[in-house]
Design goal:
Distance between the termini: 21 Å
CATH class of one domain: Mainly Beta
Shape: elongated
CATH architecture of one domain: Beta Barrel
Strand content: 35-45%
Largest sheet: 14 strands, antiparallel, barrel
Strand order of the largest sheet: 1-2-3-4-5-6-7-8-9-10-11-12-13-14
Helix content: 25-40%
């Protein structure tokens, strides 16, 4: 996919040109009288943008006095504008050799190494520049560009988001973060950032670059995907579960491998366990063009409880995802997956799920998702089989809001579902559910990405419950909270800390319960 690179002259934050006259002349004591004359003569064409004349004067100044740090600095800055990148690097290094505390040269030297494609040296100087308070945001911008060019998207986004805190640098930072997102295949999020960059600086080279990109042969709704077709991952985690239980719950915001009531045996009603969690998976993208994308994946999960192997759960999942790419204002797709669950290495239950969905984009900051979900579940063990075998139909809508920056989102949703048991003996588990949920995601400084989700599920059972002698119906209100803190350690390695809490209120006392799960995980993806 073609990448448009802005020229160095359009990106460079010219620290030198923002110096006051007093600050310039305060350093002239380091020069000889002859070099001072040439140096002062060069400042006039330099300020007027007449680079050739300025370069001649600064060259004469350095010849008159090779120890004139500012003459070397300004010849380096001027030479860069004339395209003399390597010569300019030598000049700025000489300036810093003569005057190591010449802070104005540190940032520009990092930028010149960036322009020369020497990214390791560029990052070294730019990191030094970032430690200088007045250079922080400019240095972050160029660190983001350096990391973008060498393919480290995690580091690039971190630095570009820091640079975007400065209003003057935000359009350029947004432009490059947009390119990062395009490379990740996140075309919709990227389009918002590129549009913002174009609107913020009309008529500039930056706006021209954005416009050229958006009108190129690559449609904005499909920016291509530079990621390899195959990806694999492995995950290792440790968890504490205050109230282990078995039957899986269908809530959207639940942690998918954790399970909720009912319990398999009464004596485990309040059992707490610690466990190790292991997961591996692979995904293959078999379709990726301007019309549609498609991927198939497989995941294996196994946990080992420290003090109760009866609750060791394994799962195998095969998943298919299809989605459209062509249109700018909407996207449609289909997700389908088959899950097989084992308990203590023996069959427990299996299920199949199909979810067609559509997303409609209302401008740059809001989107609406609608979906239908069909699920069939078949248990293989008592006491769940055949009472819990059922077909479940659900419809839902969710509204997404971008809160001022990429990675900062709010979503609110509603889902209605109907659980229809396949056996006459399963009437206790015929119910309808109304689910309301809200989720907020946001980066917390540069430390980690945080998310907070809350859902309430109102379950209305259709028939009088057998445990009441068929005298009245069961009603439950389940409250769920999910909190996650996630931090990328490298481009492949991510660490997370999660909390998952359930509080269920029921008009049948035996179904009142609470559950708290805390887990720490490390995930590696290639």
């Amino acid at each position: 996919m073609r990448r448009i690179q802005l020229q160095w002259s359009a990106l460079l934050v010219v620290v030198a040109m923002s110096l006051t006259t007093n600050a310039i002349f305060a350093n002239r004591a380091f020069a000889s009288i002859a070099s001072q004359r040439y140096y002062a003569k060069g400042l006039v064409p330099f300020d007027a943008g007449e680079w050739e004349r300025a370069y001649v004067s600064f060259t004469n100044a350095t010849r008159s006095d090779s120890g004139d740090a500012l003459a070397h600095y300004y010849r380096g800055v001027t030479g860069a504008r004339l395209g003399f990148i390597q010569e300019s690097i030598a000049d700025l290094e000489k300036a810093l050799e003569v005057k190591p505390d010449l802070q104005i040269a540190v940032l520009d030297l990092g930028v010149l190494y960036l322009e020369a494609g020497e990214y390791e040296r560029a990052e070294s100087w730019l990191q030094r520049a970032k430690e200088i308070p007045q250079n922080r945001f400019q240095a972050s911008l160029f660190l983001g560009i350096a990391n973008f060019r060498r393919g480290d998207d995690v580091a690039a986004q971190k630095h570009l988001r820091d640079a975007a805190k400065n209003p003057r640098l935000r359009p350029t930072a947004n432009y490059y973060e947009g390119l990062v997102l395009l490379r990740q295949g996140k075309a919709k999020a990227a389009q918002g950032l590129l549009d913002d960059a174009e609107r913020s600086m009309p008529g500039t080279e930056l706006a021209t670059a954005v416009a050229e990109y958006k009108t190129s042969e690559v449609p904005m709704a499909y920016a291509g995907n530079d990621e390899k077709a195959w990806s694999v991952y492995g995950e290792l985690g440790f968890a504490y579960d205050s109230n282990v239980s078995l039957s899986p719950n269908s809530s959207r915001i639940r942690k998918s491998r954790n399970n909720a009531v009912p319990r398999i045996r009464p004596d485990y009603r309040d059992a707490s366990v610690g466990r190790t969690q292991l997961g591996v998976g692979a995904r293959y993208r078999f379709l990726d063009n301007e019309i549609a994308s498609g991927a198939i994946g497989y995941e294996l999960y196994q946990d080992f409880n420290f003090n109760n192997s009866d609750f060791n759960v394994s799962s195998h999942r095969i998943r298919l995802d299809l989605n459209s790419n062509a249109d700018r204002w909407y996207q449609v797709g289909l997700s389908a997956y088959y899950n097989y669950y084992g308990l203590d290495f023996s069959s427990f239950f299996h299920e199949g799920t199909v979810v067609p969905w559509a997303v409609f984009y209302e401008g740059d900051v809001t989107a609406t998702q609608v979906y239908y979900r069909f699920r069939g579940r078949d248990y293989t063990r008592q006491p769940f089989q055949p009472f819990r075998d059922a077909l479940n139909n659900a419809v839902g809508v969710r509204q997404l809001f971008l809160l001022g920056a990429v990675g900062r989102t709010l979503s609110v949703g509603y889902q209605w579902s109907d659980n229809d048991p396949l056996s006459r003996d399963g009437t206790d588990f015929a119910y309808q559910t109304h689910q309301f949920d809200v989720e907020v995601k946001a980066p917390v400084r540069d430390w980690f990405d945080a998310s907070l989700g809350y859902a309430v599920l109102i379950e209305d059972y259709e028939h009088p419950n057998s445990r009441t002698g068929f005298t009245f119906r069961r009603h439950d209100a389940e409250h769920q909270i999910v909190i996650r803190a996630e931090r990328p350690l490298t481009q492949q390695l991510t660490a997370s800390l999660d909390y998952y809490g359930i509080l269920n209120h029921s008009n049948l006392d035996e179904f009142d319960y609470d559950r708290n799960i805390i887990s720490a995980n490390v995930r590696m993806r290639f």
